[in-house]
Amino acid sequence: MAAFTKTCTLLFLLAIAIFLNFNQTLAKHKPSSTSLVLGLTHSYTSLPIPKASANSKKMPSQVSDMMEPLRGVRDGYLISLNLGTPPQVIQVYMDTGSDLTWVPCGNLSFVCMDCDDYRNNRLMPTFSPSASSSSLRDLCGSSFCLDIHSSENSIDPCTIAGCSLTTLLKATCPRPCPSFAYTYGGGGVVTGTLSRDTLRVHGISSTPDNVVTREIPKFCFGCIGSTYREPIGIAGFGRGSLSLPSQLGFLQKGFSHCFLPFKYANNPNISSPLVVGDVAISSKENSQFTPMLKSPMYPNNYYIGLEAITIGNASALTQMPLSLREFDAQGNGGMLIDSGTTYTHLPEPLYSNLLSLLQSVISYPRAKEMETKTSFDLCYVVPYTSNTLTKPDDLFPSITFHFLNNVSLVLPQGNHFYAMGAPANSTVVKCLLFQAMDDEDYGPAGVFGSFQQQNVEVVYDLEKERIGFQPMDCASAAASKGLHKK
Fold first, then answer.
1. pTM listed for this prediction
2. Dist CA 170 CA 472 (whole Å)
3. Of 101, 303, 350, 364, which has the fewest Cβ atoms less than 10 A away?
């Protein structure tokens, strides 16, 4: 879910900037991307708060790696944040398309506008700063405050906060960071304040029975009081200074995830593994790596280059736009890989060419009513059998994405067509879960969404600036990491 922020600059104070010896930070803006939601309900289970015990160790920042379970809900994957003293467990989306980590704040005061779909299914508790003895407001002079306000002038946030000229000149203003607005590409908006508190994460131990916890004091996050179309918090995994990997010191290392498919949504006993640190990027000989593309205008996002798409064993799409593997002078283009966008989005006319090619090789009857109901463009009525020896997903041709550096990723069966409901009369309706990009001239040319990343280990090697793919049974991977309760 790509994001950007805006704030006002007070022009009359520019004249005094020459007296200051502050380092100026360039504003970091993120492009828009479309984030569409399939109305499927995922289960979730609260994670236990790490507790000290005879078999547990509380480790400071020298813990080099961490592993957190991810739970699937509706349109994304949740990570549990253990914030405050004593810890409060808040579940938020894991999002590689933004930097800010934020949580809903206030038991009664948190308001989400245009969130009717969530009113009867409120998944998340809210964070209460007053209940935490270690909670602090971030100061207006901090680098995080400057970042969230996207200001090129380092005195702007403290000026907005009402600091005196004397404290501005001495950089000693004790006032808190002013309120901010953070806008997401799908149209969502959150408003609130920057807070700091202790964050606890699960470290990786050499002994499976040991629970190693790592405490990160003064972790910076958004304490959000009101939102528009954003009912659940977000953990930003982008490359900016505010992101969770950056604050934990992993920005020069990396992370990996293996998203469980939707069929495990109602199983509370299994979670998708998220691994952060050296172990996430080491011993990946079986992964295929494609280089990260560097956007000069949107440096905090993860981009890869798409060269071709093939259907089945031979049919290849033509007219692949160059914009899917390179940027224009303004920094627009490339293919954004984003866990916060549900489905893969392709530009026109490539998207229409994909639909036409699939129609030419699929002979099942179209489900026009389902297409109208769901707004998906290609749905079919296909045979259904409960015979476990039959693979119903083999009814459709494979789809292969070819990325830069000769990387070919055959989407696992089930990552393109998905059942829209229960079978009836020995048939089931399945729809292609791809979407067309909005007709816009800015931002990424395409988006590789989380649905197409299911049953694939995706490795973000930030040290070598590359992204790796390895098709994998993520349920087996979860079991090997102790995330499958039997």
1. 0.85
2. 55
3. 364
